[in-house]
Design brief:
mainly alpha, 9 helices, 0% strand
């Protein structure tokens, strides 16, 4: 069953759309608050298809993520009682517990690490608000971390460019199904 090739082709087509940067910013913004899909899934194809725009796109992504992170911080600071039930409901409880323990151990450095962590970024933005972390250091650290991550991702994707995109397209079915299998195994193990 070949489904990943069509999805890959559509993603590459969308990455060249005239409003692609807007959608990238929107996804980056909402991912820092509640959205489950990281902006990398848009940044990578956009950087591969437009290598000269990779740095600009990475900075758009970082700024949007930090602004979303500020909203996430406010949610944690002012409305955690409302959000608390969703953390468990959406399956983030283990991530939440990890983030809180990291904040207690390392303070502001956690925000920097969160930019590169596989734990969803929204967990850290909300946790920073709950822990009432100093706001300005939070914003500065979040920007440095997110900008570093997205610049790295964008530059690597741009470096590969269209040639890498063509090679990736040839293997996308195997990669896609491998990811699905690994996700199911991880779910069964962590369940």
């Amino acid at each position: 069953m070949k489904i990943f090739g069509a999805m890959y082709d559509k993603t590459m087509q969308w990455s060249k759309h005239r409003f692609a940067a807007f959608w990238l910013c929107l996804v980056s913004f909402i991912e820092a608050i509640f959205f489950p899909i990281p902006p990398d899934v848009m940044l990578i194809p956009m950087s591969m298809s437009k290598p000269k725009s990779a740095v600009r796109l990475a900075l758009y992504t970082a700024v949007s993520s930090v602004v979303g992170g500020m909203i996430g911080y406010a949610v944690g600071y002012y409305a955690f009682d409302f959000v608390q039930g969703y953390i468990t409901q959406w399956g983030y409880q283990q991530h939440w517990d990890t983030a809180i323990s990291w904040f207690q151990q390392w303070g502001i450095l956690v925000v920097f690490v969160a930019g590169f962590s596989p734990i969803p970024y929204k967990v850290f933005t909300i946790a920073a608000g709950v822990m009432q972390m100093a706001f300005i250091p939070f914003v500065i650290t979040a920007f440095v971390s997110r900008a570093a991550r997205f610049l790295l991702v964008a530059k690597l994707a741009a470096w590969g460019g269209e040639k890498f995109a063509a090679k990736l397209r040839k293997s996308i079915e195997v990669i896609g199904w491998a990811v699905v299998v690994l996700a199911v195994i991880a779910y069964l193990i962590l369940k």
